[in-house]
Amino acid sequence: MSLQTAGIHHITAFAGDPQANVDFYAGVLGLRMVKKTINFDAPDVYHLYFGNEEGAPGTVITFFPFPGARRGRIGGGQVGFTTYVIPQGSSAFWKERLHGFGISVVEADRFGEHYLQFKDNEGLQLELVERAEGAASTWSFAGVPAEMAIKGFGGAVLYSVNPERTAFVLESVMGMEKIGEFAGFARFRATGDLGNLIDLPMTAVPRGAGGAGTVHHIAWRAKDFEEHEMWRGIVNGGGFQPTPVIDRQYFHAVYFREEGGILFEIATDPPGFAVDEEMEALGEQLMLPAWYEERRPQIEQGLMPITVRDPKNVNL
Predict the structure, then answer these.
(1) Do the domain assignments include residue 82?
(2) Which parts of the chain register pLDDT below 50?
(3) Is residue 30 left, alpha or beta, with left meaning phi > 0 and alpha meaning psi from -120 to 50?
């Protein structure tokens, strides 16, 4: 049985300074920090999640911020640009806001759409694009009113060392539809209305190097646990070597690396971020999985204190 992903579930990247990471994604971009936890595989490092008010699939970017981390090099085998979708008519607001924080903006056009491209404080490449589709955000913070707020992901630009094989995986494994070509890019559409458009340069990109300012992996949506098991079977049947299903507390995950070098994850929509916190309190406390609770004092002592703060009150 063939399946079609609805699109991006989340994107996970590396960062350095945890407080600077919070200041940029909550303070500058106005996203909500929906979860403050740890890297389950390296509990001395935070795992921070930023998205819309509820942290819905298709809106969440996550970070492993490690103080003193070396800067990575963006290249093949990575997400090149993380694309955010903003409401129609809001580009002027965002251009002015980014300039107000001293952030350089490059304007670009692709597939008939206009993009504002910029980098975060670590050099991670981001872009904003206006689109009508996708539910409006209800979150307002740090001078970003809800009517101007980022809705979630518009998609991503993938940098591949073997774009023909990456295209094959997008179409034949993940079930996306190729809908066009433009200036050396191929565009693929998933079935959802957020995180649903993937642009792939069809010229190989020299391999990048992981580190702060680069994406670790991109995760695709599975609607439930049953479908997730089916996805693992499809990936395995395609000749890849998926990991076992891993419980990440807020979703179940399976990982595999496609032939263009990009680490793919397939993640379940449920159970979501309210599984261990009330919706109105998301991101306020350090949340640990049960198997780390007995180590909470040592873990908390080893983590740099962070806080969500309005940038008008601090010097970013």
Answers:
(1) yes
(2) 1
(3) left
